[in-house]
Design a protein that fits this description.
This protein is an alpha+beta fold and about 70 residues long. It has 2 helices and 2 strands. It is about 40% helix and about 20% strand.
Length: about 70
């Protein structure tokens, strides 16, 4: 099972449960499994639209952000 498949599974089973938390302007915010899955699919489609093929690799050089998990 891939990581994406696992996220989809959790989004289906527990859509409103918090999947991860991050600090925004000093306040902790939660992202639910359904929100997480929606963002994962949006990013995946954006990568495909940019011409990345399945199995391609992307490197990110930046501070930790929840977006990098998508």
């Amino acid at each position: 099972m891939t990581v994406a498949q696992r996220v989809a599974q959790w989004a289906e089973k527990t859509p409103d449960v918090v999947a991860l938390r991050h600090k925004e302007l000093g306040v902790w915010r939660g992202i639910s499994w359904s929100q997480y899955w929606d963002q994962v699919t949006d990013v995946g489609h954006a990568f495909l639209a940019l011409g990345l093929m399945a199995g391609a690799r992307v490197a990110i050089h930046a501070e930790n952000r929840p977006e990098w998990l998508m």
